[in-house]
Amino acid sequence: MPEQATPLPILKPPGGHQPILKGFQVLRLFEASRKGDCALKRFAERCQLRWQGLLGGGETEEHREKHGQKIHRVGSRLTRRLRGTADLSAVITSIGAVTGHGLGSARLFAALLEGRSAIRPVTRFPVDGLCSNLAAEAPGDEELEQASSFLAARSDDRASRLLLAAAADALAARELDPSPRRGVVVGTTKGAFEHLGRSPASDDLLAAPARALARGARASGPCFSVSAACASSAVALGEGLGLIEDGICDEVLVGGTEALHAFVYRGFHALRALSPRPAMPFDVERAGLSLGEGAAVLVLESLSHARANGRRPIAVVEGFGSSADGYDQVAPEPGGRGLLEASRRALRAARVTEEHVGGYHAHGTGTVQNDRMEAAAFAALFAGRDVTVSAIKGSLGHTLGAAAALDVAVCALMLERGTVPPVTNLKVVDPHAQLPATIGVPCPLKGNRLLVASAGFGGINAALVLATPAAAT
Amino acid sequence: MSAEVAVTAWAVWSGGGVAVNEAPVDGRGRGLALWPDRPAPILPARGRPVPPAASALVQLVQAVLTTRRARVPTLPGTVDLRVGTRTGSLEVDLAFLRSLAERGTAFGSPSLFAYTLSTAAGGEVSLALGLRGALSTVSTGELSGLTALVTGAASVTSGRSEACLCGAMDVSGSESDVIALFLLEPAQPYLHAPRLVGWKLSFDPEAVTDSTGDSVRSTMERLAVALAHGESAEIQASSPGGHSACLTVVPAAGATVHPERSAIVEGR
């Protein structure tokens, strides 16, 4: 970084009761300083001086704490903005997917555009006596292993096989030299669940898919799995975004994977959440959710790294936010306040407002509770604005820990092509869950930025902001 | 990463007992030791029975936050909860499987199923104590707790979190059971607390399965000992699966005394 060309504006001497500059004022001052490590350091020192002045000003401890946090937040924002000038914004450059529609993200997007559903009678385990017999099953193990054979990674559980097959789709055209700056973050809720209870050593079920992917991709940077119920892979994307923005990694393989297990199927039956018909998100005749299995892998990399390697960004991940609504273990807060808060946090992190968003990609499970909660959050956030609404669980079922990664994969393709697929199985929108959902045929995407929503058990909510590369610059 | 983050309160609960802002208690035994005082009553959510491990996490979070508030009354507006776990919801998973075997596959217990997620215990914290921050678990085998600390510290220093309760929770009825929590906040002059000043995660794709003897419990206890003794220390660990983690701790700047202690230390 060059030394600063323009001196920093001199801040007023520390005064006991003077408020600290507001965030936007500080940003304006900082931008005037031409940006640079030197400028940031000097600016931080001045903030510290000012802060110490406040400390000596005899204010209350509560007041000091509040201002201290403000300085920290502003400093962090400055750091991020500074790094942004070094092209550390995170872009998606490759997408891979495996779903009930088969291998490959292209096949998935084609099925969505046609409004086809992969939800069919379950073949993998008996479902006698349960309230549904349907799910969206991915291809068999043999096909998955064949697809990922070039990655040369061993996997002895289905979630890892699904993940590796999705990775093979994403990484087919890439060089995979070993790299300490390549990270792996994978969202899953049950991981290698079929090994449960086999031995104490096999208790480490959740991290198995992430390790399999890191071995296959020869990644020696940070590697870990994340669980946050049905928002798991949204949180994984948030973690991947952090690794890029903090300059820890040049590229992060962010995945989500979930196998269909009898255990989970019977659990959702116990909750009476399964629909006897393929799921119909937001439809007046919906009767619950359909489970699915699948995986998605997104290669997230810094814009500078992508450019240096001649890769074209498909979409930019601009921001992530998450919250807990503290309402119930399985039911969402009906007013959608948790999802609303997560969405606002994501928008703040992306440094945009809801007015910059042209499309809302819903969690859309097809349960009454979820759909109405989401409609309430949508109404509060967008307040009647003309925003397209999409959802994919009527087509590939609810893939739990993989759901958000698949959502983001589809949204990146929507941004690339400017087309929004219809919500599969939606015919008439529930008047109590009013959303301007896309019905029947694809429609053009409004604007060039999407908000992607996720919600899960434990009151967890998460949201991501995605944009076209042109919109983000 | 070289930014700094303050550890303003911590607690470790293991088979030895419970220690808050103290070195962990030695002692072995299957499962967690009994809580030394009468625990605060925890209301079950919507009438469901709460699994013991989830209740235990709520109790320990409460202890950490109470200790922190005793030093500086106000907490940051939003506190995230990030728990490292190797076994996830193992005990509840096994209980749900037993319920399916005993009652039939169509008659599993919905109350049990609600807790068959590694984040269910964290959800209980949100329900009982009103935390509205982000909530997640991370897993890297034996290093899951350190991974939660490393990723939490990065989140706090970058401003993605205002504060983060990080640590580990591995409760499966074994001698290595542990719940450990460390409250990470931006390092500020008024927070006279030990700090994390460096951290790193890495992975060896070629790793062979040689155990180094590190466990979730041992890594959390090493960190708590360094914090309690006011030592500068580098907590390094690696797992048979190929994960490695490193965390550098330094005492509070100019510290002549340790952070306030509210010792709740008792054997079984």
Overview of the structural elements:
The complex is a heterodimer of chains A (473) and B (268). By secondary structure, chain A is α/β, with parallel strands linked by helices. Chain A folds into two domains: 23-85; 90-472, Thiolase/Chalcone synthase (Peroxisomal Thiolase, Chain A, domain 1). Chain A has 15 helices and 16 strands. In chain A, strand 1 and strand 2 form a beta hairpin. In chain A, helix 2 (37-55) packs antiparallel against helix 3, helix 5 packs parallel to helix 6 (158-171) and helix 6 packs parallel to helix 7 (208-216). Chain A is globular. Residues 1-41, 48-61 and 82-86 of chain A have low confidence and may be disordered. Chain B is an alpha+beta fold. Chain B has a single domain (5-250), classed as Peroxisomal Thiolase, Chain A, domain 1, CATH 3.40.47. Chain B has helices at residues 52-71, 90-103, 110-113, 120-129, 144-157, 216-228; strands spanning 5-14, 18-20, 79-84, 135-139, 163-170, 178-186, 195-203, 233-238, 243-250. In chain B, strands 1, 2, 3, 4, 5, 6, 7, 8 and 9 form a nine-stranded mixed beta sheet that branches. In chain B, a hairpin with a 7-residue loop joins strand 5 (163-170) and strand 6 (178-186). Chain B is globular. Chain B starts with a strand and ends in an 18-residue tail after the last strand. Classes of the chains: A alpha/beta (473), B alpha+beta (268). At the A-B interface, helix 2, helix 3, helix 7, strand 6 and helix 8 of A face helix 2, helix 4, strand 4, helix 5 and strand 7 of B.
